Amino acid sequence: MTVPHETPVLAPASIPAAITTLRVRGLRVSAARRLVLEALFAADGPVTADAIADGLGGRLPESDLASVYRNLDTLEEIGLVRHFHVAHGAGRYALASRHHAGYVVCEHCGAHRPLERGTVAQIAAVLREACGYDPQLVHFPMVGRCPECRF
Amino acid sequence: MTVPHETPVLAPASIPAAITTLRVRGLRVSAARRLVLEALFAADGPVTADAIADGLGGRLPESDLASVYRNLDTLEEIGLVRHFHVAHGAGRYALASRHHAGYVVCEHCGAHRPLERGTVAQIAAVLREACGYDPQLVHFPMVGRCPECRF
DNA sequence: ATACTTGCAAATGATTTGCCAGTGT
DNA sequence: ACACTGGCAAATCATTTGCAAGTAT
Question: With an 8 Å Cβ cutoff, are A143 and B147 in contact?
Answer without folding.
Answer: no
